[in-house]
């Protein structure tokens, strides 16, 4: 577990909620650039959000199976991280990392013991690993669905691999998740919203307070 624990609030769309996350003590914010997401922000808005956040908090842009031109366009805005939340292979993650020139967080969906065995092949090609719930069949997007997974599956993971945990975390569950899984960091999106895509100040503050109290 990182000391201190890394807390990422993902799916920020407004400058107001950016300030809320910073003031509440988050370490990272995530911005979605994926049109099917209720948290999608345009390239223009990404530029504004990243500029406003620079020097105040780490920024991460979430992309799903992006092509090289999308990666280059986003990287030019100067985020600290790009999060790859699609079916990118280790080879593709390596190629994107070379194009982007920023740190890469690779998300791996966990739904079975078999999924846990795939994590090791991404350790050398990504700068950080984020473990999320596997989306249900037929879902229109690979994340941000508030789905949790069986944390017990992670007992089979090589303990030397640092990872962040996401997937349906909420202010009510984050402390138990941290105590059970001992992650490097935690990431939340829908669990701090009053409706899909609408972040809530009190929920963000409670999530961060409860996460810090569990360490
Ligand atoms: O938020 C989305 O709509 C989204 C769309 C496509 C890929 C990832 C997405 N969200 C990310 O999923 C995890 C977990 O979210 P949740 O806490 O379960 O809602 C997080 O990194 C989101 O930013």
Report the uncertain regions. Answer: none
N-to-C span: 9 Å
Label the CATH architecture. Alpha-Beta Barrel
In total, how many beta strands? Answer: 10
What is the string of helix and strand elements?
A: EHEHEHEHEHEEHEEEH
Largest sheet: 8 strands, parallel, barrel
Q: Give the oligomer, counting copies of the same chain as homo and different chains as hetero.
A: single chain
The number of helical segments is: 7
Give the full name of the CATH homologous superfamily.
Answer: Aldolase class I
Q: Percent helix among the residues?
A: 25-40%
**Helices and strands: which structural class?**
alpha/beta
Radius of gyration: 16 Å
Rounded average pLDDT: 96
Ligands in the structure?
Answer: the ligand O=C(O)c1ccccc1N[C@@H]1O[C@H](COP(=O)(O)O)[C@@H](O)[C@H]1O
Name of the top-level CATH class: Alpha Beta
CATH topology: TIM Barrel
Report the portion of residues in β strands: 15-25%
**Overall body shape:** globular
Strand order of the largest sheet: 1-2-3-4-5-6-7-8
Domain count, please report it. 1
């Amino acid at each position: 577990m990182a000391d201190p624990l890394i807390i990422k609030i993902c799916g920020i769309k407004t400058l107001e909620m950016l300030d809320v996350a910073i003031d509440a003590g988050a370490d990272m914010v995530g911005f979605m650039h994926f049109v099917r997401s209720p948290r999608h922000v345009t390239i223009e808005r990404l530029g504004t959000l990243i500029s406003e956040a620079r020097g105040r908090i780490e920024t991460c842009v979430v992309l799903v199976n992006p092509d090289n031109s999308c990666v280059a366009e986003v990287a030019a805005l100067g985020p600290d991280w790009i999060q790859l939340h699609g079916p990118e292979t280790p080879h593709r993650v390596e190629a994107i990392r070379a194009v982007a020139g920023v740190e890469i967080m690779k998300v791996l969906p966990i739904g079975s013991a078999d999924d846990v065995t795939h994590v090791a092949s991404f350790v050398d090609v990504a700068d950080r690993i984020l473990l999320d719930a596997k989306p249900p069949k037929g879902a229109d997007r690979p994340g941000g669905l508030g789905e949790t997974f069986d944390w017990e599956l992670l007992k089979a993971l090589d303990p030397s691999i640092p990872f962040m945990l996401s997937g349906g975390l909420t202010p009510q569950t984050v402390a138990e998740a941290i105590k059970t899984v001992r992650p490097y960091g935690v990431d939340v999106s829908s669990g701090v919203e009053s409706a899909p895509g609408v972040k809530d100040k009190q929920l963000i503050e409670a999530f961060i307070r409860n996460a810090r109290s569990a360490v």
